[in-house]
Amino acid sequence: MASNNGDVKLIGAWASPYVMRPRIALNVKSVEYEFLQEQFGSKSELLLKSNPVHKKIPVLLHNGKPICESSIIVEYIDEVWSSGPSILPSDPYDRAVARFWAAYLDEKVRAAPMAATEEAKNAAVEQLKEGLALLEGAYGEISKGKDFFGGEKIGFLDIAFGSMLGWLRAVQVILGGVKLLDEEKTPGLCKWAVKFSADPAVKDVLPETEKLLEFAKILMAKMKPASSS
């Protein structure tokens, strides 16, 4: 592991795809860090103090200074620990493209369409499928025939999308076997997903589907009283 990293802590929760992003980025850079897990349903004093604006995870604490928002944290990690493998592309245009698709993912491709009505759920699934079809095309262009969006190694867009993989797999089960990543419609992304999940920086961070399904049951149980009142 890299040395002289300073004091590095990450406030988060194991099931959050947004928390997985900085965790993977820190692993890519071989940065040792302390993972401070928030309890589900509550916010610690440290979180509220570190992110008083949004009061959300993840928050990176580097030598006591807080950095918030998952994509911003990943970029910060890439800049600060520049001696490790690059996460963002070196070319300005390629960087802009990676940021565009990362923003698109956060806006359109939600990994957990737990809508209240069947109609809303179906609409969410269709939006997911449409987004993944567009991303399939982007993968073909951006990867240039290599394994990852980032080329030979995982990069910014791999981390942005890959952090959602566990929930995509869980949602497929929750929705009764609906195929979101389909070998016929998204063959490139299917192959990419296998390689991304097996990467040393990823495999111990990405939760198992069964574990996420158990967590989803707890989430949905807590949502029911609120939606029925």
Automatic annotation (TrEMBL):
EC number of this enzyme: 2.5.1.18
PANTHER family per UniProt: GLUTATHIONE S-TRANSFERASE U17, GLUTATHIONE S-TRANSFERASE, GST, SUPERFAMILY, GST DOMAIN CONTAINING
Reaction(s) catalysed by this chain's protein: RX + glutathione = an S-substituted glutathione + a halide anion + H(+)
Full protein name: glutathione transferase
GO biological process: glutathione metabolic process; toxin catabolic process
Start and end residues of each GST C-terminal domain: 91-215
Residue intervals passing through the bilayer: none
Domain (GST N-terminal) ranges: 6-85
The keyword Amino-acid biosynthesis is assigned to this record: no
Highest taxon above the source species: Eukaryota
Gene3D superfamilies documented for this protein: 1.20.1050.10, Glutaredoxin
The entry's keywords: Detoxification, Transferase
One GO MF term: glutathione transferase activity
Similarity-based family: Belongs to the GST superfamily. Tau family.
GO cellular component: cytoplasm
Pfam families in alphabetical order: GST_C, GST_N
